[in-house]
Task: inverse folding
């Protein structure tokens, strides 16, 4: 009987009118339920410049009209799903062109330059890109008692760092409220700014009521361009706050403070006094790590004459062109530089986004368990810099066992099997060969074959609340790490979920991409505004994620803020998005405070929204503290 009915059912299905089965029906217990496909950013319909109240491009429109026009277009183009828009706070005002009377140069024109974002207590700090001839200060905002009804109010500024007429890029700001051992609450703001060749760090103690600085540390010069950093608060010593700095372009440069050595890829500094909690007058350098020193790929690696690198060959898309005539991606160098990192709450693990060298895990127990005083004095029970076992392509097998004694070292060096083999009677060649194989396996590295300049693996953030269920995981190390890739051109890169259940052998188990990550979509992206004029370039790289147990919120540059359900790590899926107008560059780590999400957009200023989609009840609400993935969270 079933045999005779089944063809009729199939026939009926094929004869059903269009759209009859478009409504998704969910029979699972999944809180997210049915979800539409990942949103395809309608770039050609999204103006990247000022509009009037009707939504038409108009450089002469008033602020009120421009805001009304953008809001109408955001609704018409369905640019918000499962997000409630709360505030748009301008950080760069527009200026009138004296010749034409047109507005230009501000957030309303898609021409702002917001960068780093730091939030703690009731204070928010927004940095700016700056550059030659531009020296904008850090904006200080106070978050109001009713943050939904009232936007943050600008209450002051911190002058720009500058050399001559060139303002430094305030790319990274972090703030933290903590209770020192004397029982007093203190608030600091840590600032990392620089140029293409300079990186400098300053720490401010700020008045929690006014958000204004009352003390500034001496400026620490990294002697090269510093990049992203993690602010770690020691759970065992409330006075102790450390900076874990990634020297993306600065690592590997000659170290003028240590002749004969090179600047590490990662540098750890103390910014508060571990005995009193006061901001240090001079930051203390505690430890460093260098991938190349322990046998990793060389910085700025070049291929041989055939295009072959030490670990493979890149796919060549240069035979394709997008609508602007730009060739597809082709890569002729690997940066192999540390770009970003996150640190476990106990401080004993660092999850490293190593650019074209991939992702890897560092053991940082030596930093977490020693005092600042011992680390700075070199009297700690670990080596404060990486043991140099590799030079000029040669690995000194006699030194390999010493790596496990470094304050920061790759977890593969802790493996008891490797340690036993290094202590055996095997030949030096055999020891070096086994070590290099395991070292390479300990990095999940998709570059090559994927072309990914300028960055590669951009961010690496562990998934909290989901410890690996493997034997011996008494420290509750995480099972998963979320990775974002950053690159320009075509094809764009995407995001990956990586299992670190075996820390020394990470493996990709899931991925998430947007339609424009496909070569076909990327090449055919619109290059004109809605009115047909040539549009300005809006970068579209995947950037900074803030990660919760089941949700990831990531700023995806020109593709806005994206909410991704990772409850099934093997199948991440989009559950919401917020794309603001004018079309800009969602940039900073999303910061969660009192149920609201704050992020900076490189072109349009500071944005505030609330996620109202699936699993929103799992997110921290009012009074729960501040959550972000570039500082110990929650914090105050």
Result:
């Amino acid at each position: 009987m079933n045999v005779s009915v089944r063809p009729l059912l199939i026939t009926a299905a094929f004869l059903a009118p269009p759209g009859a089965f478009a409504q998704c029906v969910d029979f699972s217990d999944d809180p997210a339920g049915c979800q539409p496909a990942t949103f395809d950013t309608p770039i050609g319909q999204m103006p990247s410049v000022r509009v009037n109240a009707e939504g038409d491009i108009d450089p002469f429109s008033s602020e009120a009209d421009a805001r009304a026009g953008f809001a109408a277009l955001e609704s018409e183009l369905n640019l918000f799903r499962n997000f409630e828009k709360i505030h748009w706070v301008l950080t760069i005002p527009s200026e009138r062109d004296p010749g034409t009377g047109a507005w230009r140069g501000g957030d309303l024109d898609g021409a702002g330059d917001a960068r780093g974002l730091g939030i703690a207590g009731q204070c928010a700090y927004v940095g700016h890109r700056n550059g030659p001839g531009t020296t904008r200060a850090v904006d200080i905002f106070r978050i109001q008692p009713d943050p939904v009804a009232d936007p943050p109010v600008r209450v002051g500024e911190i002058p720009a760092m500058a050399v001559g007429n060139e303002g430094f890029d305030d790319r990274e700001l972090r703030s933290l409220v903590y209770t020192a051992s004397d029982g007093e609450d203190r608030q600091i703001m840590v600032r990392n700014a620089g140029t293409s060749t300079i990186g400098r760090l300053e720490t401010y103690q700020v008045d929690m009521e006014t958000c204004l600085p009352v003390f500034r540390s001496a400026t620490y010069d990294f002697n090269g361009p510093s990049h992203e950093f993690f602010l770690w608060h020691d759970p065992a010593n409330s006075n102790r706050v450390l900076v874990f700095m990634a020297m993306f372009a600065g690592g590997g440069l000659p170290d003028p403070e240590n002749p004969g050595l090179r600047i590490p890829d990662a540098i750890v500094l103390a910014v508060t006094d571990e005995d009193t909690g006061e901001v240090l007058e001079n930051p203390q350098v505690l430890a460093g790590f260098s991938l190349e020193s322990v046998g990793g790929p060389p910085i700025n690696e070049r291929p041989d004459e055939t295009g072959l690198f030490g670990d493979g060959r890149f796919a060549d898309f240069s035979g394709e062109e997008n609508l602007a005539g730009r060739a597809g991606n082709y890569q002729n160098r690997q940066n192999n530089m540390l770009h970003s990192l996150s640190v476990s709450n106990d401080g004993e693990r660092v999850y490293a986004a190593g650019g074209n060298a991939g992702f890897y895990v560092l053991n940082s127990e030596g930093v977490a368990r020693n005092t600042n005083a011992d680390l700075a004095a070199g009297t700690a029970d670990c080596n404060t810099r990486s043991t140099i076992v590799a030079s000029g392509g040669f690995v000194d097998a006699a030194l390999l066992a010493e790596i496990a004694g470094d304050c920061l070292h790759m977890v593969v060096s802790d493996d008891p099997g490797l340690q036993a083999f290094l202590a055996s009677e095997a030949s030096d060649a055999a020891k070096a060969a086994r070590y290099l194989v395991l070292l390479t396996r300990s990095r999940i590295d998709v570059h090559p074959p994927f072309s990914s300049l300028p960055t590669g693996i951009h961010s690496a953030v562990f998934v909290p609340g989901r410890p690996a269920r493997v034997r011996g995981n008494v420290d509750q190390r995480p099972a998963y790490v979320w990775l974002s890739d950053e690159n320009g051109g075509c094809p764009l890169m995407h995001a990956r979920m990586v299992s670190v259940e075996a820390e020394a052998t990470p493996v990709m188990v899931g991925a998430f991409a947007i339609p424009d990550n496909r070569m076909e979509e990327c090449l055919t992206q619109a290059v004109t505004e809605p009115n047909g004029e040539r549009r300005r370039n809006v970068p579209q790289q995947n950037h900074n994620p803030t990660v919760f147990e089941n949700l990831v919120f990531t700023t995806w540059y020109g593709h806005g803020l994206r909410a991704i359900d990772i409850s099934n790590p093997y199948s991440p899926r989009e559950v919401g998005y917020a794309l603001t107008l004018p079309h800009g560059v969602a940039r900073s780590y999303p910061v969660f405070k009192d149920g609201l999400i704050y992020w900076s957009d490189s072109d349009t200023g500071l944005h505030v929204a609330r996620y109202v989609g699936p699993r929103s009840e799992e997110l921290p609400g009012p009074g729960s503290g501040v959550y972000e993935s570039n500082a110990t969270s929650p914090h105050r």
Q: What stands out?
A: The longest strand covers residues 169-179. The chain has seven helices and 37 strands. The CA atoms of residues 346 and 460 lie 17 Å apart. Helices lie at 2-15, 63-76, 365-369, 372-377, 416-422, 428-441, 519-523.
